[in-house]
Amino acid sequence: MQPWLPAPLQTVIGLLLFGGLPLRDRWQLLDAIERSWEGDPALPQNLDQRTAEEWLAERKQSERARADVWTPLARFLIGDDVTTISAAALVSVFTRCLLTARRHARLAVPTDTLHDLLLSPLAARLARTGATIRFNTATVLLQIENDRVTGVRLRDGTTLTADYYIMALPHRQLTAILPERVLTHYSYFQQLTQLSDSPALTVHLRIDTALQAPRVVLFARRTFHWLVSRPGPRRSGTVISVVATGKPELFERTDQDLIALALDELAYAYPGSEAIKLLDSQVVREPRAFLTMSPGTRVLRPLPQSPFRNLLIGGDWTDTGLPATLESAIISGTRCAEMILAKKE
Q: Phi then psi for 51, rounded to 5 degrees?
């Protein structure tokens, strides 16, 4: 639990009290944090071209600190190991979450599903404004003439038209519906083909026992990388989500193997919980869960305004200054809406 102090003091005191590292490593961590906060020395200009591992080693972060502190944080906040992500991604997220306003370090664990929490209320509000929502409607081609988008052709052959278009598709799906001449002519779209995605595997467990929840546990040197627990439906039992990122080899394991591994992680996080009764389970494999923040990625993420004046590009993977998270998606959508409103004024 973080001390009730303003940033960055809450991070400093929290690390001083952290018993998971030897005192020497804690002092090295504090020194790196203090220097990053004060800008002494100034951060190098090539952070986006280097891995976080290289930069941390240069900052005298021990192998143990990198494995037991920085890697779990990087996995949880950015989705990949410090050997994969850029130093710029780590510095940006770490600074925002732990060295700025205290509220930026808060974690929210919703008890409702994403559908109930966001999607249903949003659909209801859009319906009240007269918007039409089409489910299971695939787009096959973005029609473009001169400097404007003229329509969106659907799989059933119909075409939808509008004054402005916001394409909030994953980058691979977006490039797939562009005319070939557009994809090859504009560097704005060409660079999207250089982006890559990281996998994530989640095992959801529903147990009959009421454990401490909500709770977030980061793992170091384990098969899975973090665990989130929350009260079960109608406050009955507990729902645990155990997550591994950047490990495509886990996809080849059977569901039963993965559930057994997840139960091991649960017992590790909650000592004495080995005798719990498992009520239900689900394994979710996402081969392309989120954007890989590897060196060089930052300059490839697009701004909202495309080369076509009535086409904006949205999504968590666009250039928001954050990793490809839900917060990033919200920022992207807000920016697109504001740009369209500004064009109409």
A: -80, 155
Burial status of residue 272 (CB atoms within 10 A of its CB: 0-12, 13-18, 19 or more): exposed
pLDDT digit string (tens) for 105-161? 677 777 777 788 888 998 999 999 999 888 889 999 999 998 899 999 999 999 999
Give the mean model confidence (pLDDT) for residues 69-79. 92
Does residue 339 contact residue 309 with C-beta atoms inside 8 Å? no
**pLDDT of 1:** 47
Task: Match 């039409």 to its residue by tokens.
Answer: 132
Give 341's contacts (C-beta < 8 A, 6+ positions apart): none
Other CB atoms within 10 Å distance of the CB of residue 250: 20
8 preceded by cis ω (within 30°)?
Answer: yes
Q: What are φ and ψ of residue 206, in 5° steps?
A: -115, 120
Structure tokens at 16: 């001083």
**What pTM was computed for the model?**
0.85
**Which domains, from first to last, does the chain contain?**
9-105 (1.10.405), 138-195+294-344 (3.50.50.60), 197-291 (3.90.660.10)
Q: What is the CA radius of gyration of the chain?
A: 22
The string of pLDDT tens digits covering residues 111-127 is 777 788 888 998 999 99
* E-strand stretches of 246-344: 278-291, 311-313
99-122 as b/e: b if 16+ CB within 10 A: beebeebeeeeeeeeeeeeeeeee
